[in-house]
Amino acid sequence: MSCRTILVAALALSADFARGDEKLPALTVGSETYSNVTVTTVTATDIYFSHSRGLGNAKLKSLDADLQKRFHFDPVKATAKEQEQFQSHALYNKAVREAKPAQPEVVG
Question: 61 lies in a domain?
Answer without folding.
Answer: yes
